[in-house]
């Protein structure tokens, strides 16, 4: 490269409704690696951006929740294929974001984790549903159904594996998501948005906001069209306030430890169960 040539810094955008808009406020902030070297500019989402993301997630919920479990599984498998195709880019971004020599294994785990949740889409109803014994000429079935729009505060430290671990179960179970990414480590989340946009995931199923969770969390917690809240990456000082706001609109709240868990451990179905409602149906025999 010529010594006289100026480097062109990349400015990333938000991911809302399947498109990549700039923040409504026009704000951006610099993203640096663990050594302080400038990497790029990221959009700083505003309250209006959060509202737009919720509206997009609500619009997409009907089609996504109505899709067959098999179809959702195939869509998620396609995302895993594309994650694999951009594996080297993710390794470079995780290395820069987290300053770890384990980036390769963390990226591989993230891809495998996505496949793991994809495999659960057509098994959730069997495991969590039931045919209930009743005294009378009726059938009684219990089936799990998605909750709706889930606001997810992604882990602040684990830029990709943690993000995949909290996002994949939300959409695998038929919900749609508004995700607030790690503020200081957003690049893997932005690249994941690009993967989702070029895969078979319908626009609005996942909406990715970069910026400050402190700024965005109160608005998402109190938004009447958000049905559930994942507090994994939420600011510790705001958790009690967020739970109180969520209670005002009768949201499901996934409470998590204030310290991030070890994301490399094998997951279970706890996060899948967290965003499902139980519906019981009675039907007369012979009709």
Describe the protein's architecture and organization.
- Helices cover 41% and strands 18% of the residues.
- The chain has 287 residues and is α/β, with parallel strands linked by helices.
- It has a five-stranded parallel beta sheet, sandwiched between helices.
- The longest helix is centred in the N-terminal third of the chain and has 20 residues, at 47-66.
- The relative contact order is 0.17.
- The mean pLDDT is 95.
Order of strands across the biggest sheet? 7-6-5-8-9
> Roughly what percent helix?
40-55%
Strand content: 15-25%
- Number of DSSP strand runs: 10
Low-confidence stretches: none
First and last CA, distance = 76 Å
**Radius of gyration, Cα only, in angstroms?**
20 Å
Largest sheet: 5 strands, parallel
Number of DSSP helical runs: 10
* Helix/sheet category: alpha/beta
What's the overall geometry? globular
The chain-level mean pLDDT equals 95
